[in-house]
From TrEMBL:
<dbReference type="InterPro" id="IPR017972">
    <property type="entry name" value="Cyt_P450_CS"/>
</dbReference>
<dbReference type="GO" id="GO:0016125">
    <property type="term" value="P:sterol metabolic process"/>
</dbReference>
<dbReference type="GO" id="GO:0020037">
    <property type="term" value="F:heme binding"/>
</dbReference>
<dbReference type="InterPro" id="IPR036396">
    <property type="entry name" value="Cyt_P450_sf"/>
</dbReference>
<keyword id="KW-0503">Monooxygenase</keyword>
<dbReference type="GO" id="GO:0010268">
    <property type="term" value="P:brassinosteroid homeostasis"/>
</dbReference>
<dbReference type="GO" id="GO:0016705">
    <property type="term" value="F:oxidoreductase activity, acting on paired donors, with incorporation or reduction of molecular oxygen"/>
</dbReference>
<keyword id="KW-0349">Heme</keyword>
<keyword id="KW-0560">Oxidoreductase</keyword>
<dbReference type="GO" id="GO:0016020">
    <property type="term" value="C:membrane"/>
</dbReference>
<dbReference type="InterPro" id="IPR001128">
    <property type="entry name" value="Cyt_P450"/>
</dbReference>
<comment type="similarity">
    <text>Belongs to the cytochrome P450 family.</text>
</comment>
<keyword id="KW-0812">Transmembrane</keyword>
<keyword id="KW-0472">Membrane</keyword>
<dbReference type="GO" id="GO:0005506">
    <property type="term" value="F:iron ion binding"/>
</dbReference>
<dbReference type="Pfam" id="PF00067">
    <property type="entry name" value="p450"/>
</dbReference>
<dbReference type="GO" id="GO:0004497">
    <property type="term" value="F:monooxygenase activity"/>
</dbReference>
Amino acid sequence: MASILPGEDDCFSCCAGLVMLGALTLLVYQIMKPLLQYYPQQEPSPDIPPGSRGLPLIGETVQFMAAINSGKGFYEFVRLRRLRYGNCFITNIFGGTHVFVSSTVSAKAILNNDSGKFGKRYIKSIAELVGNQSLLCASYQHHKLLRGQISNLFCTNSLSVFIRQFDQLIVEALKGWEHRSTVVIQDEALEITCKAMCKMLISVESGYELEALQREVGNVCEAMLAFPLRLPGTRFYKGLQARKKIMSIIEKTMSERRRGLKANEDDFLQRLLREEAAAVGHGLTDEEIKDNILTMIIAGQDTTATAMTWMVKFLDENPEVLHTLTKEQVDLGRKTWPKSSSFLTLESINEMTYASKVVKESLRLASIVPWFPRLALEDCEMEGFKMMKGWNVNVDAKSVHLDPTVYSDPNKFNPSRFDDGGGYSRFLAFGMGGRTCLGMNMAKAMMLVFLHRLVTTYRWKVMDQDSSIEKWGLFSKLKSGCPVTVTCINKDAILST
Ligand code: HEM
């Protein structure tokens, strides 16, 4: 999961005043609007990417904050500039220079980073929330070490176990819909994905601890886009307090495990502790384990829930796709329902050919993580322009996904465009290179299980067609949450399990 808001670590605190200005954006924007129109643009230089650096010091921060605060979402800021300036443009936000790049060739070069010219970009305030030992913030060597250890957890065996656990959770949740006429997909999906992450990572399944984790992880996520002010009552302060509570739950679980309690659990924590005990100098430290457990809960829940919500909306708008999908899933279901234990398996997931394309197309069109922030570690050249050391270079994945020269008729929801497999460097929903999403297969599996159970158990219809985006969301989330009417059409599918 990428940190969405770009920023300049070193000057972050001295730019705090500017960010504050941005937070009062509507007021300021109204005052400055006329000024912005008349402010002369910098003389374009053939070496430097086209674009506007905005006002001195403030740059285009106000316009960026206005986009975050609008119903169109923060990506609107990038979309408008990409339309105006093309595949590579420059801007200035939060006191830092940002370049956005949206060609497949440059995306591949930056994300694969064979030249070693780009580092991961992150904001200090986000590092405080997820922890500075998190994969999301680790620098090159440390990241390599952490990733090496953590990626072992995402093996095929873990995926098989996870699919069954996730299906159980979905079936349980769908049973609860039987006597309801409407549900809000975003809320339901978030509850299920958070439960799934807590179970997979530390075997917390119910009770006080699960409730506390669900609540506090939500508070950490909300604090990620907040102004980093440590005053009681602020969102950022609430996020830091929430982090402390989550850490104490993980610490308590770790100490129980070390005392031999629940040591038979086969969750990610237990496996990391086992590796730590067995390793000669290479196991993860307690801080690394704790920060990365929190990172994985955060990285896995909201992203996947948001993707599921968009998928439901796209299917509702495309009845012919829904029809083909339902047929595939009902045929598959007929093979499993009569059996006594009929939870989905990795094998059944692998049979979902059309559904996999629906998932991929939903991820393309929604582009949940719209751009991936990187830092130029030295001067270099990109798209024929100079990039200077210290600039933020953002790979604009959403523009690649919506580029008509890359995907024909890009705004159409058409899963069949992936009949040929889809092209490695064109599909960027999970990133690319050494920082590719670790939970990619789990995320896809969750979306497939959810799809299967939804279309084979319920007839449903989206009630609110509004496509407005939630303000201040970490990802492009539907403001409505996507409420749907539901009618159970196949009790056997959920009751026989
Ligand atoms: C639909 C759901 C998801 C989407 C769209 C998504 C997207 C992404 C993207 C784009 C990145 C790379 C960002 C970059 O290069 O800057 C990433 C990284 C990451 N994701 Fe996901 N993700 C999803 C679900 C998950 C799940 C379920 C997990 C696991 C529990 C997970 C764990 C991670 C981790 C640990 C990283 C950091 C990898 C690293 O820096 O080495 N993600 N994700």
